[in-house]
Design brief:
Helix content is about 25%, strand content about 35%. The chain is α+β, with helices and mostly antiparallel strands. It has two domains: about 80 residues, no CATH class; about 170 residues, Nucleoside Triphosphate Pyrophosphohydrolase. Strands 7, 8, 9, 10, 11, 12, 13 and 14 form an eight-stranded mixed sheet that branches. Strands 1, 2, 3, 4, 5 and 6 form a six-stranded mixed sheet that branches. The longest helix has 15 residues. The relative contact order is 0.15.
């Protein structure tokens, strides 16, 4: 164990958190207290036996920890398993369906995505959950910033909650079959777009409303986004029946799947 290591608790067992030798000066305390790291530790399945965590790098968004690059030395059923993590925490995505003159449309957002080499990738409006941990509040904020659509929290339907977190008197009959399958692991926090390399999860929301032709035309091609956060977004309004054919964004395709199945089940 490195002399500069600090200890963290993984399923009640103290394990060292240390810097990678190539980055010896990283702030381990900031890593330990970062919300994505705290949440990851809290959600570890008991069958994952972590013996050491190595911090490779930290990216900051202003004063806030943005991304962490980690390696968790881990065994499952006594065998080593890959433990490289690009840690960024949770995010939200909003499927906005607009009814205009009897036709349904979906609000898309085009922006540059350097990791996939695209200058105008088509996605759904989305954003990272901040340290406050209020995903529906983030959804309302991101929708206003990226589309100009101003909503209240009650205007968003949480598709992921309806699919994975049903409880109370309105539990769908399929829960009897689904619950024991889903409960083999810790509760699902949302949709995991890249579980082999990242902890990221997305809460997928839905908003539907009727609009006039003038309102729809005003959205088409509108430039939006939060410039302070480097966002330069152009809205694109696309017929709903065509959207899955032109958008390869994982959160969009997942939202469409949940929407279609939840509607078929009579839950929305």
């Amino acid at each position: 164990m490195s002399a500069s290591a600090i200890m963290v608790s993984c399923n009640g067992v103290a394990v060292p958190l240390e810097c990678h030798p190539s980055h010896p000066g990283l702030d381990l305390e900031r890593c330990k207290n970062a919300k994505p790291f705290v949440d990851w530790l809290a959600g570890l399945d008991s069958g994952l036996k972590v013996s050491k965590i190595v911090l490779h790098d930290i990216d900051f968004f202003g004063p806030r920890v943005g991304f962490l690059k980690l390696e968790a030395v881990t065994k499952c059923n006594g065998e080593p398993v890959p433990g490289i993590i690009f840690m960024r925490g949770g995010a939200v995505s909003i499927l906005v369906r607009l009814l205009c003159e009897g036709v349904w449309y979906i609000v898309g957002a085009r922006q540059a995505r350097v990791p996939v080499g695209k200058e105008n990738l088509l996605e759904l409006p989305a954003g990272m959950i901040d340290d406050a941990g209020d995903p529906v509040g983030v959804g309302v904020k991101e929708l206003a910033e990226e589309t100009g659509i101003v909503l209240k929290k009650k205007d968003l339907v949480d598709l992921t909650a309806l699919a994975y977190e049903q409880s109370g008197p309105d539990v769908h009959e399929d829960e009897v079959l689904a619950a024991p399958i889903r409960n083999k692991s810790t509760p699902l926090r949302g949709m995991y777009p890249s579980a082999g390399g990242s902890d990221e999860f997305l809460r997928l929301y839905l908003h539907e409303r009727e609009v006039t032709r003038a309102e729809l035309d005003a959205m088409q091609g509108k430039a939006t986004g939060c410039l302070e956060e480097g966002e330069k977004i152009v809205m694109e309004i696309i017929r709903a029946d065509l959207f899955w054919r032109v958008c390869s964004d994982a959160k969009a395709l997942s939202s469409l799947l949940l929407f279609q199945n939840l509607r078929a089940a009579g839950q929305i």
